[in-house]
Amino acid sequence: RPAREAGEGTNRLVEWLDADHSEFRLVAAPALGHFGDGDVAKPLVRALSDPAPRVRERAARSCGMTGDSRCVPALRERLDDRHAMVRRAAADALGSIGTEPALSALIGVARADDEELRRVAVEALGQFGSLDPLVVLVEALEDDSEAIQRVAILSLIRLFADAPEARSQAVRSEVARQLRDHSSAAVVPPLLDVMDESTRWRVRRD
Q1: Mutual orientation of helices 53-66 and 22-35 as an angle, nearest 10°?
Q2: Which run of H or of E encompasses 134?
Q3: Interatomic CA distance for residues 59 and 186, integer angstroms
Q4: Does this model's pTM top 0.90?
Q5: CA pair distance 149, 47, nearest whole angstrom
Q6: How far apart are CA 144 and CA 116, in angstroms?
Q7: Which DSSP letter does residue 130 get?
Q8: Could you report the per-residue pLDDT of 118-164, keeping only the tens digit for each?
Q9: Most exposed of 10, 95, 173, 201 (fewest Cβ within 10 Å)?
Q10: Using one digit for the tens of pLDDT, what is the confidence trace for 163-196?
């Protein structure tokens, strides 16, 4: 019975996503991410095209909660949304989903005009697990925002700290080479900040 009731609750939320009144859609979009069971990716993808920007934002966040890779193409399209809050929610969701196609979509976003959007993208790219975003992360070390510089350093550290053991040394060597060829004025201050402030021994060591 509880399983049947949960399924009925999900069906009701899906119906609310098609309601004429946006208030119902505003409730349904986040609720599906928190409480929806079964296949909620399809209705959430539809909601990413909702005429109300707040519904699109909440649907994007719910896509990130589900971690469903089927949401990636629609989230990628929302990176060009007219509303900044939707773009940021889409970028954050892609980072949460974390598949290679999701993270690939964020490489271009790391150069966006929107500072918060750049920060979300640069932070997520540390999860990539390969050297594909390396050039973008090194470029971010010279961002006008000190917060993004710091996030870029942490992402670079994470890039080789989390690399598979068989590739760890190769990734470390390439990251070190890129940083060596970069401006020390851009690289050294955020590295020192991380060493001074991080409570994680492995991060400080790396």
Answers
A1: 10
A2: helix 134-140
A3: 37
A4: no
A5: 34
A6: 12
A7: S
A8: 999 999 998 887 788 888 998 898 899 989 988 998 888 888 777 77
A9: 201
A10: 777 777 888 788 888 888 777 777 788 788 878 8
